[in-house]
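To fix ideas, we quote verbatim one protein's residues and fold tokens.
>
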Amino acid sequence: MDSFHNTSKMETSINEKYMNRCIEIAKNGLGQTAPNPMVGAVIVHNDLILGEGYTSPYGGPHAEVNAINSVKDKSKLAKSTLYVTLEPCSHYGKTPPCANLIVEHKIPRVVIGLIDPHDKVAGKGIQLLKKAGCSVTVGVLAEYCRNHHKRFLTFHEKKRPYIILKWAETLDGFIAPTNKMRSKNPEPYWITNSYSRQLVHKWRSEEQGILVGTNTVLEDNPRLDVRLWQGKSPIRIVIDRNLKIPKSFHVLKGTPPTILFSLIKNLNKVFKNIDIEYLTKNKNVSLDISKKLYEHNIQSVLIEGGAKTIQSFIDCNVWDEARIFVGSATFKDGTKAPILKGELIDEKMILKDQLKIIRNA
């Protein structure tokens, strides 16, 4: 722990208790705050919580502002401690600096989970607080805060979105049936149950973008929205190198926005309401796409298929997390599931579906 004053074991335990609460309430901002981080803040006076706040949807007040505003008796702030998962900002953006507001209210002590890696902050908020006479403690539950802020940190430290791979495979390791099977029965072949499919829609609402390849769109004509969950649909990201997808398909119509990656030039004349990004032949497509999505300010992407698209990100080691469903059905033949190595961090059953969460070790 990087601390600017001596910390006893009892104080460490208290700090961790309230930082845990910060992380807990910060999750209320999931899927709403980007490109801002989903921060949580708690204000404590005499071991009682006076106020709490988490980051509002983008453009609204930050967590510290909401926490301070929630305190009824502002006179107590001058004898309180503010806990926050990420260093308070020190620059003007959509809202004024949070560090200035903390100083303005004469909050004497601030406990921070992580230093903000954003080049406009990166320690400047802490310097401002210390200069004003605040006692500052940094690094409380740092690893928990890093995991919570994984999207924001990956974006600023690796200059790419946090990438989640997702697929469903049969007991015998296939993610799609053969064309022969499809022609016999054109209805969708569901590998997972309705509860697992609803969970996927929840996941979609939590990420900024959702990415699929050409074959997935041609075979399923997906909507890539959150119709089975309440929330914001992600930006649709479609790889269509040779422009095979008909303009009548869902991903090229209506809302939410679509970013189309293609080798074909001058597509802006063909598509009026779609962002076009051009791929370079013989270039590593996964790295190229990640770089361009960073330029679009997209902090997290859920990649839902197909097998070749997912495998290309695995082979280039451009992924952070994989969420894999294993259903109870078998196909005996078809498209083989992607292959990856990583650390199993969670495993659960959803009725007869097995869900494995794997982290890129």
